[in-house]
Amino acid sequence: MKIYIGCDHAAIDMKNEISEYLREKSYTVEDLGINTGEKIDYPISAERVARKVVSDKNSLGILICGTGIGMSIASNKVKGIRAAAVSEVYSAKMTRIHNNANIICFGARVIGIETAKMIVDAFLEAEFEDGGRHAARVELISKLEENF
């Protein structure tokens, strides 16, 4: 599975650590973030990752900023994205299982690196419960995009 990862200037170090962590676990990681000394507005980074995830249906995305909230809001503006800002493992798991989220967002100023790793593991290891009430609800979310 390919993972697209991005960040803003508040989260460069965490992005780099998570990228390395995923590579060690044999994931293919495409880093769309920035590096030390650079600055970027979070909506730009969010759009980069979101567009890649939408065009590569077998991929997932990780976005990291100060809180994860801005990245979540911005990436959800891209049709086909279901991004969730989380700060603990249970929500990371459940957003995949119930919402079929394709991007996880979190904040480098909110959680530490070990919690971030646990969140990433929970998100990537969980699978959408396709069919039934969850699929119907995700379809309703998709219909919302079509109406605007």
Describe the structure.
- The protein is globular, with a radius of gyration of 14 Å.
- The chain is of the alpha/beta class.
- A five-stranded parallel β-sheet has the order 2-1-3-5-4, sandwiched between helices.
- β4, α4 (89-97) and β5 (103-107) form a beta-alpha-beta unit.
- The chain has helices at 12-24, 42-55, 69-75, 89-97, 113-125, 132-146; strands at residues 2-7, 28-31, 59-65, 83-85, 103-107.
- It has a single domain (2-146), classed as 3-Layer(aba) Sandwich (Ribose 5-phosphate Isomerase B, Chain: A), CATH 3.40.1400.
- It has six helices and five strands, in the order βαβαβαβαβαα.
Q: How do you describe this structure in short?
A:
The protein contains 6 helices and 5 strands; from the N terminus they run βαβαβαβαβαα.
Write the layout of secondary structure elements.
Elements: E1 2-7, H1 12-24, E2 28-31, H2 42-55, E3 59-65, H3 69-75, E4 83-85, H4 89-97, E5 103-107, H5 113-125, H6 132-146
Parallel strand pairs: 1-2, 1-3, 3-5, 4-5
Helix pairs in contact: 1-5, 2-3, 4-5
